Structures are given as C-alpha cells and as structure tokens.
UniProtKB/TrEMBL annotation:
It comes from Neolentinus lepideus HHB14362 ss-1. Keywords: Nucleus, Ribosome biogenesis, rRNA processing. The lineage of its organism: Eukaryota, Fungi, Dikarya, Basidiomycota, Agaricomycotina. Belongs to the NOP14 family. It holds the Pfam family Nop14. This is Nop14-like protein. It is found in: Nucleus, Nucleolus. Coiled coil: none annotated. Residues 1-52, 130-149, 196-250, 301-468, 886-915 are annotated as: Disordered. Residues 1-15 have a biased composition (Polar residues). Residues 37-52, 130-140, 301-328, 892-905 have a biased composition (Basic and acidic residues).
Length: 915
C-alpha cells in the first residue's frame, strides 16, 4: 500500500486495478451492450470490495503467532471483528430485540372452535356441527378409496389386476389323467424350488457356473400358491377322515341290534316290530325334552343394544324434573284436584289409572301404587357418596334405619366417642364476658319442649313429604323447612335439596350448596345441644356433610375454623373468670365434642399440618392441659377428648402428653389408692387437682359399690355431659374407660424412645390402687392392664441399648500420587498422571471457558439493550422537545399579540388625552 492519505491511496489503488480513466459509455454503445458486460461489472465490484478491505486496517485482525510453522493451518489466526460484531448485532435484532419489544404484550390467541363463543348453541349442537365439518373434510379424500365400488380399478403395465390369474405358472396345473395327484405340487416345481435336484443339474448338462449360482427367490404369488395348496391338502385330508368316521358310525348303528342281544337278556314279551329302536330303548322322553329346549332357544329374544351412559349433568337434570313433577302431583292431590294426566302418561301409559278396590281391599296399596316414585334413588352420578343411602332407602326402610341408628349410637357410646363442633378464625384476644353459643337455639328448643318434630296429622298417619324445597341460606330458614318433618326424613330433605340444586343445573347452585354445608354444620351443633341431643340424626347427616366437604373444601374449612375460634375464645373467657369456679365453662359440652368428632371423621387427621385438624388438635390439648377438674362431667369430657386424640393419632402415632396425663389423673381421681398427698404420687406428670376439695367426692365408694352390686357397663357419656346427678355406676364406667385408654396409648407409644420413663410411673400408680375396694369386673380389668404394661415395659427395657460412639471403619492414612514434571511444555504441564484428576481439571477448564463466553455474551446483550433503550429515550426526548417548542411558540405568539394590543391601547389613550 502506498504512502499518503487514504484518498491518495484509494486513487492509486483504483488506477493500478485499471478501474480509472475510462470515459462514460455513449448511448450508441449502450444499445449494443451484451450480457458479457454484466460479468465485467461483477469483477469490477469484487475488485472495489477488495480495495476497500485493504484500505481499512480495522476490518481484519491478525493474531501474531509466537512460533510460526510453515504449511500449518491454524483456525482463529485471522478474524474480522467488524463483520462479526455486525453479524451479532443483526442476530440480536432478530431475536433479543423481538423479545424485548413483545415483553409486556398480551397474547392474541383466538378460540375459533365451532360454537365455543356462541352461548345460544347447546353441547349437542356443537358436537353435531363439529361432526359435520369433520365428515365434509374427510369426504374430499374419497377419490382414492380402494374400498369404494366405483369404476376405478388397479392396473399393472396397462393390464387390469382383476383379470390376472394369481395361480398361473406356479406349477399347480391339474393332470386330468391322474386324479390321485389332485391338489399336489408337480415334481418340476419341487426340483426347481424345494431342496431337491442338486445332483441332477450337473448330469443334465447344465453349465458349471449356473450351478454355482444361488437359487432363485420365490415371488409372492409362488409363495401364496404353495400355502394355498398345502391348506387344500389338509382340507381334503380332514374331509376323508370325516367320511371314514361317518361310515364307521353308520356301520355301528346297523350292528347295534346284534350287540344289544349280547349285552341284555331277551325280553319276556316280544316287542312289536313296528316300533322304532329309540322308543324300545326308552329315549323318547329325553328326545322330547331336547327338542323342546331347541325350540325354546330358537324363539329366545336376541340381545339388544342399551342406551348410552348418561352424564352427571343429565342425571341431575332428570332427577330435578322428576322431583318437580312429583311435587306438582302431590300438591294437586292435596288440593283435591285430579292428577295431571300428561305426567302420568309420560311415565308409563296406564300408570295414572287407579285399580278398582275389591271387597277385601284394606287400602294399604299406597306404596304399590307409588312404588315407581318411591323406589327411585333420587341422586345423580356424583351425588351418591359412600354411606349415603338413596331416597327410597331412607323413605321405605324407616324401621331398619332407626334400628341401625340405635346400633350406631350404642357403638359410639361403647367407644366413648361423639361427634364434634366447629370454630371460627378470629383474633386471639382474651375477652371477658358471658359464653357465646356456637349456634343460636330456636324458641322450641330453648323453652325446654321436645326437640323432635312431629309430622303426623290428627289421625296419627304420617304426612306426605314434599319433593321440592327451597335452598336454605341460614340455619333459621332450614329450621323452618324441617319444622314439621320427623328426624328420619331430614336426610331425605337434604338429599332432595342437593339434587334440585346440583351445580350443573344453574350458575348459582354452587354457592347454595356451600351455604347448605354451613347450615349442616350449624344443624349438627343444634341437634346435639342439651337437653335433648339427637345422635341418630347426627349419624344420618354426617355422610351428606362429608360429601359437601369433599366437593367444597375451602368454604367448609373456613366455617369449621370459625367455630373452633369461638370455642377457643370461650375457653379463654372461662379461664379468665376462674378455672376452679363451678360456674365457668372451661370444658367442652356436647355440641363442642360433637364438632371435634365430626372434624375427625370428615378431614384427614394424619397430616402434619392441616388448616382444620391442626387447630382442633391444639384446642383439645388446651382443654386437657389448662382446664381443671371440678365435677364428674369434667372427667367424662376429658376422657372423651382423650378418645378423640386416640382416633386422631391412630395412623401418625404422634405423642400427646396431655391425653396420657389426663387419663392417669382420672384414675387417681376415681380409684381408691394409698396416696394421701401429691408428693407421694410417683412420676413427673402434674396432678394439680389430686385430693382437692372438689375432687374428693369423685372417688368410688366401696360401700355403695358393694351394696348395689355394681359392675362395669358401657358409659353413657351423653347423659354424663348433660349435667344430671351422677351415681357410682358412672364412676365405675369412667374408671374402666380410663384404664382402657391407658392400655391403648401404651400400644401406640411403645415404640418411642422415652416409653419407659413415661409408663413406669403409670404402672406404679396402677399397682398401688386398692383393688379389693373395686367391683370384680373392674378388678379383672385392672389386673389385665397391669400385666400388659409390665410385659411392654419388659420388652422395651430389653430392646434399649446404651449410648455408644458411632462404629465405622478405621480411617486410613491419606496417600497422594507424586507429581512429576518431565517437561516444561504446557501440554504436559496441564496433564496429571491421575486420570480422574486430569478429567476433573479438564472439566473445570471447560467450565471456566464456557462461563467466560456466557458472561461476554450477556455483556453484549446488555450493551445492545442499553443502546436500544437509549435510542428510545432519545426519540422520546426529541418528541417531547418538539412538543415543548410548539407550546412555547404558541405561548410566545399569543404573548406578542397581547403586548401589541396593550401598546395600541396606550397609544389610543394618549391620543384621546391630547384631544
């Protein structure tokens, strides 16, 4: 490159390339210009580009090699940073810039499926429209349908395939003279295709080279022909065997008379010759039965296809229409009008006509007449849950349901478990004042009347239950609905409400069912409130509450938490007024215990953290740990809470010290023992109320037990918690329950580390009980508990091992591979004799390089985005400046006009003064 400025260098390079000094072409030359001139232009452009690259020293960057070896090609020695930088910028414009521009943009996807945005189309219409479009789209491809019976036919080399014979030239010709070889393959085909004739080929004078060639591959037609020939051969063979069997059977039938004469003695009276052999053998009756059975099978009705399975929405809609129709007919019958003929005909033709009564008709055919209505379950798919009976089962089986409910009640009393109550989420503040009820009691219940509803008329007959009911929003409205309905019909009412207001039938039914679930919780608290708790009705309502809870868990959980919060607030109020005050309510009553029991049945109790069960567990622990024992009802309530803890922790087996502590304290309160003071009681569990003035009357009286001859029975916790005067029988029952709970907790907690420290004092307390002052059945139960605890403690002591250091293999002395540097080369310096360390070092180097490259690319992306943002800001500032200039210009022009007007006014004023 010559010296001088870049312009001088450019001129000299152009002149050296022969691109300068040529005059512009004339018009005449332009007309005669040919296509070859285009190639000259391309060469000239290439030369100019080469000159441009040589003039700019920054377009090409060359890395100087330390040791240049001739003939060696190394990548990356020469680079073009400007072009690579421009290529990176262009790539970022197509990728990063597009992503930056659409960063906060919303998507524009439009749902164009048939009928999705058309509210006037039903689901069936949408499916029909889609099916029509699909058939129209697929019908376009029927032109090449091979199964179509059109005029098209397949050809091969211009010949129709339908006219070709698949069995030509395959060696299956039939020899007319030889019938024995019919259906067999001829010998020529066997020699040519099968494994035969290898020795004959050379003898026949064939070429040696041809004999060495591999055998010809069979065509598909030949293979199929061979297969069909073999199948025909097997078929003919089976037919021959069948014919032989038939002939042998016919021969045996002909010779049967001679064989029969050998087997049986001659008859006393000769049989008539005209009777058939089958009649002589006595087989006519069996033949008649066989013929009758064949005729019956011939006239048997064939199976018919059934209707498709209906969806949950369709079943719910049909059930709602059915209940509404029944309600209309019921109202018409109640008003003395004729039943609706259209509805009766729609359900079964002559069903609406009542048969004429006979002389001995007792008018007890109501259920036969309404059987089709009362027999329907009344629930759609999804409404029937486990344990939820159908409407027919609840209506027709009243006596069975009442019997089962009594059994459930007895089982619950045997286990000492009741259903429990809810709490609300409120601020934890100790408020002083009266106790708040969990649910407001109606006037009928609060006035002391019988809480059971009476839905029978004046003549003692049961009133007919309506089929439709309004959806109750509050508990008061629900009480108005079930005011004249008996308890055994309340589940039927709830089931019909759930059916009528299924979520798929209307948009607002979901919220109505959520309100119904809250109403059920309040009603459970209402029916379990004293003085007349109704536990059979509670058992019947529980499946409906469980189904609604599974369907709407969040609203139901909130209502449960609100009730739990109110119970906790009542507990704090009772403790603040005095835990030993008999008037303060510190222990839960029947509604609270019922709610806690329902929580354990509806929600999973084995979770570590649960929004409903965890607060309930904490509340029960607060009752057992903070409340003080004053009466026998407090002991019954506490033992029921211990039973609930046993139910809650049956799977998780979490340790609850409050439950075990209260159970042993109940034993100390009820059982006569040799301990006179709290200091004499072994162990470290607190005994705050032991031998107190309020707890001394709780101890079992030996005289009363011996006088009355009491034995252990099932504890009636419902009567104990109502507040009635309790006798010695209840004390004996509660002591037996406490001993049973201690044994059950021992079975659960026998695997924990501190079981010996926990149950060793309990065993000592049980051994110091004066068993001679107890009934015989209770004495046997105490002895059984002591034996069980002794055995479990023995096994626990045997399984316990002393603490010791962790056993492990001896740690060897570390040995290192010596590092040898045999050369100063970087290649050998970076290599390690240890293969694993070498690979690890290689991965670290690769990671370091990739990290550098990623950081470099991220910095470039950041610079590019910063430049784009700067350009946007500059454009924004430029537009803002232009707007401000326009505004200032308009303001200045207005101000100039204003000043000119003011000057003109001054001049006119001066002129007026001069005049």
């Amino acid at each position: 490159m010559g010296k001088g400025s870049q312009l001088t260098q450019l001129k000299s390079a152009i002149s050296q390339a022969g691109l300068a000094g040529r005059p512009p072409p004339s018009k005449k030359r332009k007309r005669t210009q040919s296509k070859t001139d285009q190639a000259d232009k391309d060469k000239k452009a290439a030369k100019l580009k080469e000159i441009q690259q040589k003039l700019n020293p920054f377009d090409v960057k060359v890395t100087k090699l330390k040791h240049d070896v001739g003939g060696r090609k190394i990548k990356g020695v020469m680079g073009k940073p400007a072009q690579s930088r421009q290529a990176g910028i262009e790539e970022r414009k197509h990728t990063l810039l597009k992503e930056y521009e659409t960063k906060n943009h919303a998507g524009g996807i439009v749902d164009r499926r048939f009928g999705e945005n058309d509210p006037s189309m039903s689901l069936e219409e949408r499916m029909l429209e889609r099916f029509t479009k699909e058939r129209q789209r697929t019908s376009k491809g029927d032109l090449f349908n091979l199964e179509d019976d059109g005029d098209m036919e397949l050809t091969h080399y211009g010949q129709s395939l339908s006219k070709l014979d698949d069995f030509e030239d395959v060696g299956l010709e039939l020899d007319e003279d030889e019938e024995e070889t019919r259906g067999q393959i001829d010998s020529e085909t066997v020699k040519a295709v099968h494994f035969g004739g290898f020795e004959d080929e050379d003898e026949e004078g064939g070429d040696g080279e041809a004999s060495l060639l591999p055998p010809r591959k069979k065509s598909k037609a030949e293979v199929m022909a061979e297969v069909m020939a073999k199948s025909k051969e097997h078929k003919y063979r089976r037919q021959a065997e069948k014919e032989e069997d038939e002939s042998l059977r016919a021969q045996l039938d002909d010779d049967f008379d001679s064989l029969r004469s050998l087997l049986y003695s001659a008859p006393t009276q000769p049989a008539p010759a005209d009777k058939p052999v089958s009649e002589l053998l006595g087989t006519s009756e069996r033949d008649a039965e066989y013929d009758a059975l064949i005729r019956a099978l011939a006239f048997e009705a064939r199976a018919k296809p059934k209707d498709r399975t209906k969806t949950e929405e369709e079943l719910a809609l049909e059930e709602k229409v059915r209940l509404e129709e029944k309600e209309r007919r019921r109202v018409r019958r109640m008003q003395g009008l004729d039943s609706d003929g259209s509805g009766e005909e729609g359900e079964g033709g002559r069903r609406g006509k009542k048969r004429a009564g006979g002389g001995d008709d007792l008018e007890d055919d109501f259920y036969d007449e309404m059987g089709a209505e009362w027999g329907v379950g009344g629930v759609g798919k999804g409404l029937r849950e486990e344990g939820v009976g159908s409407a027919s089962e609840e209506e027709d089986g009243g006596e069975e349901a009442s019997a089962s409910e009594e059994e459930e009640k007895s089982d619950e009393e045997d286990e000492g478990e009741w259903v429990s109550d809810d709490g609300t989420d409120e601020d934890e503040e100790v408020e002083e004042g009266e106790q708040e009820d969990l649910v407001a009691l109606s006037k009928t219940k609060s006035s002391g009347k019988n809480g059971k509803n009476n839905s029978k008329g004046d003549n003692g007959k049961r009133k007919e239950l309506p089929y439709t009911f309004p959806a109750p929003e509050t508990h008061e409205k629900f009480l108005e609905i079930v005011e004249d309905i008996e308890d055994e019909d309340v589940p039927t009412v709830i089931q019909r409400i759930r059916t009528l207001y299924h979520p798929s039938l209307a948009e607002g039914n979901k919220f109505k069912l959520q309100a119904l679930s809250n109403v059920l919780i309040d009603h459970i608290l209402y029916i379990t409130s004293p003085p007349d708790p109704r536990f059979p009705l509670l058992s019947a309502l529980l499946p409906h509450l469980a189904a609604l809870t599974q369907q709407y868990p969040i609203p139901v959980a909130e209502h449960f938490r609100s009730k739990l919060s109110l119970m906790h607030k009542n507990l704090k109020r009772g403790l603040s007024s005095g835990s030993l005050d008999p008037s303060s309510k510190t222990w839960p009553g029947l509604p609270e215990l019922s709610l806690l029991r329902v929580i354990g049945l509806v929600w999973p109790t084995s979770d570590m953290k649960h929004p409903v069960v965890s607060p309930a567990r904490l509340l029960m622990g607060a009752y057992l740990g903070l409340a003080r024992v004053r009466t026998l009802a407090d002991v019954a309530s506490g033992l029921f809470l211990c039973t609930l803890f046993l139910q809650y922790e049956a799977r998780s087996k979490r340790f609850v010290p409050e439950a075990v502590n209260f159970a042993i304290n109940a034993v100390l309160h009820l059982a006569p023992s040799g301990y006179k003071d709290v200091k004499d009681v072994p162990g470290w569990f607190p005994c705050l109320d032991f031998q107190s003035e309020l707890c001394k009357p709780l101890m079992i009286s030996h005289k009363q037990v011996k006088k009355l001859g009491l034995e252990v029975e099932k504890p009636d916790l419902g009567r104990m918690l109502v507040g009635e005067v309790l006798s010695e029988q209840e004390k004996v029952d509660l002591l037996a329950l406490a001993l049973d709970l201690l044994g059950r907790f021992a079975e659960i907690y026998k695997g924990i580390e501190g079981f010996i420290e926990l149950y060793d004092p309990i065993l000592q307390v049980l051994e110091h009980i004066e068993s001679h002052r107890l009934p015989q059945s209770l004495k046997d139960r105490l002895t059984k508990s002591i034996d069980m605890l002794t055995r479990i403690l023995k096994f626990s002591r045997q399984a316990r091992r002393p603490l010791q250091l962790q056993a492990h293999k001896p740690i060897p002395i570390p040995s290192y591979v010596p590092k040898f540097e045999s050369s100063s080369s970087n290649y050998f310096r970076n290599r390690d004799p240890d293969h694993e360390r070498n690979e690890a070092a290689k991965l670290r180097r690769q990671y370091k390089q990739e990290k550098k490259g990623a950081l470099r690319e991220l910095r470039k992306d950041a610079r590019f985005l910063a430049g784009v943002q700067q350009m946007e800001q500059m454009e924004k500032d430029k537009r803002y400046g232009q707007r401000m200039k326009q505004v200032f210009g308009s303001i200045e022009s207005e101000r100039a006009e204003q000043k000119a007007m003011e000057r003109e006014k001054k001049r006119e004023k001066k002129r007026a003064e001069k005049k």
